[in-house]
Structures are given as structure tokens and as C-alpha cells.
Amino acid sequence: MSTQQLLAPILSFLKCETPDEWIEEARKPENLSIILRDHLACELKAGQTAMHFLRKYAIDKESGKILADWFKPYEAYLYRKEGDLQSLASQDALSKSAFTTKNADYGQDFIDKMVLLIKEELHHFYQVLEIMEGRYIAFENTTAGRYAKDMMKHVTTHEPDTLIDKLICGAYIEARSCERFAKLAPHLDDDLNKFYISLLRSEARHYQDYLALAEQVAGKDINDRIAYFGKVEADLILTPDSDFKFHSGKPS
Ligand SMILES: [Fe+2]
Ligand SMILES: [Fe+2]
After folding, report:
1. Could you tell me if 37 and 90 are in contact, meaning their C-beta atoms sit under 8 angstroms apart?
2. In the chain, what is the straight-line distance between the N-terminal and C-terminal CA atoms, in Å?
3. Is the entire prediction scored with pTM above 0.70?
């Protein structure tokens, strides 16, 4: 599948494109370290979000512990600068068969999709870190931007709508990441260009998986809710934002 074919459904799902002003800011060589540091943190956050869904809704306590342990070296690196690339590379593979369902409503398909997503996000984390080390960009933990936080403020507080809303937000975050990687890639050097294009396939699937899970959990038409979050998301992308990050709004 070509990049264009991968992107077509994403561009029609999102209510706006990344503004050129954001691309202008992101392509400045002096901002590369901000982009990569924030990207690294976003990959872990994406994995943790899926872990949260699994632990809260789908898997039993024992499985939850296995999963939480699996994240520990990545969290230790990001939050406490403990460990290095090598210690992350020697992590055992995560197997979806290690998990026991606690709720048949969120069955095997939910677990399979989320476990695959976690594996991929943590692999991306490793890849970003490898790129940063290769470029002598020291890791510094940065504060999160407004994007995901502000979207979450619109999530309903009663189940199952809370989960449905959060899955829709997940779909938007993944879709936006995909659109931004594709739009920014041609403005970066060859290695980064290739890396960002290589991420499109998995991020495009993550967006589709989140959307499919939201529809499955809802068991009814959720187009109004999708449209609602589409508007919230587009506002965050198009309105001025002084905190330049991977998912920030129009630079101001
Ligand atoms: Fe990722
Ligand atoms: Fe993703």
C-alpha cells in the first residue's frame, strides 16, 4: 500500500490538516531535539494508555501485573534515566497468551489489538531513543503539552461511554500522529524521513483498531460522538499554542 493510500482514510477522518506554520517550526534544526524528546515520551504514553485499557477493562489482576512489569524498564528510563538502550533491547518478548480475560465483553480481540499496539509503541520508543543517541541528543523529560489532556476533558464520566470516548480520543491521537509524520517527513534529513515514513503503517492501523474497538464496545452508531471529538481535536490543532510539541496547535 502506498503512503497516499495509507493516508487517505486518515485525512478524511481528521477535520483539519496540520497548519503549515507548525511544519515551519518543526523543521527548524534547533527544534529537532524538542520533537524527538516529546516523540519519545509520546510513544511510552501511547503504550501506557493501552496498558490502562487492558488492566481496567479486559485482563485479570495477575495479567495486569505481568504487563506493568513489562513497562518498568521503559518508565525507569523516561522518569529516572535508569538503564540504557542495551537493557531495553534485552527485554523478553511480550506474548498475548500471557493474559487472562476477566470480562468476556472485552474479549480476545480487544486484548490482541491492545497487546500488539503496546509492542509496537515500545519498539518505537526504542527506535526514537536509538536515533537520539546517534545524534547525541541527551534525554530530558519534558512536560506534556495540552493536546491529549484537553481532549480528555471532554470524556463522559459514566461507563461504557467513558471507554467509548477514550477509544475515540485514542483514534484521533493515532490518526494525527500519522498525518504529522507524513507531512513533516519530507522536510527532515534522509534518515529521519525514512524513519517517520516507516511509522505510518503501524500508526494507521492503531487509529483503525481504536475506532473498531469503540464501535464494538458501543454496539451502536457513534458517528455523533466521533464528529464531536473531531471538532475538539481540530480546535486544538488550529488554535494558537505557545508550548511547541509534537501535537501542539498553531505556534504563537
Ligand atoms: Fe508509535
Ligand atoms: Fe501508535
Report:
1. no
2. 37
3. yes
